[in-house]
Amino acid sequence: MIRFEGVHKRYPGGREALRGVSFHIERGEMAFLTGPSGAGKSTLLKLVTLIEKPTRGTVVVNGRNTSRISRRGIAAFRQKIGIVFQDHKLLYDRSVFDNVALPLVILGLGPREIARRVRAALDQVGLLGHERHAPITLSTGEQQRVGIARAIASRPEVVVADEPTGNLDPELSLDIMRLFARFNEVGVTLLIATHDLELIDRFGGRRLRLVDGMLEADDAFAPMAVS
After folding, report:
1. What integer pLDDT is reported at residue 205 of this predicted model?
2. Backbone phi, then psi, for 86, in 5-degree steps?
3. DSSP 3-state of 54
4. Domain of 197: which CATH number?
5. Domain contains 55
6. In whole numbers, what is the pLDDT of the chain averaged over residues?
7. Could you give phi then psi for residue 112, rounded to 5 degrees?
8. In which element (H, E) is residue 199 found?
């Protein structure tokens, strides 16, 4: 599902953000990407989502070598990938409905199908009935849920999240992680970058630890009881 083989990423100026990274996340796995600030976590997620391409090595997502995808093919590639950002990246001049609908509009779906999928996505994150609200009127946790609803509305096979709980208190962080766990239970592959080791200890899966752009550890771990 997600495979890195000897991946290097060098930025202009010579900074090497990733150095020889290799791993394979199977379909339906939930994996956590950890490591200190500047370790390369965000760069790795950008390679998965084709915001960036590797300088050397191979990145394969959903069976496709990203280096072989043309600029014209990027939109189609991203249809099967949901992206969740730490800062939500919501459009504050649009309603909750319009924010969640945005990727579906890009896909060219009809109004009736868009409405059905938006309501279904909001229902999954506990925000059904908030369609006409302005994002600015919602709490930080609710805004993050809107971002998650937008990521899953297109029914992606893979969801990547970059510090999705970084701005939330512990209780809200746990709620967001429970949402991700539910998506994983129905077969969605998840790759979540986070600093919160105490939180991810409560969930089973893989832990990929980056240090100075290199994969220092790749371990499976058993979940603690999640209350």
Report:
1. 78
2. -65, -40
3. coil
4. 3.40.50.300
5. yes
6. 92
7. -65, -45
8. helix 197-200
Read off the pLDDT of residues 64-117 as tens digits, 9 standing for 90 and up: 999 999 999 998 898 889 999 878 889 999 999 999 999 999 889 999 999 999
- For residues 160 and 81, is the Cβ–Cβ distance under 8 A? yes
Looking at residue 60, its amino acid is: V
Domain that holds residue 26: 2-221
Question: Does position 25 have pLDDT exceeding 70, yes or no?
Answer: yes
Backbone dihedral angles phi then psi of residue 119, each to the nearest 5 degrees: -65, -40
* Domains in the chain, number: 1
**Cβ(132)–Cβ(122) below 8 Å:** no
- Residues 89 and 147: beta-carbon distance below 8 Å: yes
Query: Tell me, what DSSP letter sits at residue 26?
Result: P
User: Does 76 reside within a domain?
Assistant: yes
Phi and psi, residue 164, nearest 5° = -70, -15
**Residue 227 placed within a domain:** no
| Structure-token pair, residue 223 | 């979940």
Quote the pTM value.
0.91
Q: With contact defined as beta carbons under 8 Å apart, do 152 and 122 qualify? A: no
- Tokens representing residue 124 in the block: 């999954």
Going by the DSSP 8-state scheme, the letter that residue 222 receives in this structure is P
Would 226 be classed as within a structural domain?
Answer: no
Task: Please check whether residue 16 is in contact with residue 57, taking contact to mean a CB–CB distance below 8 angstroms.
Answer: no
pLDDT class for 224, splitting at 50, 70, 90? low
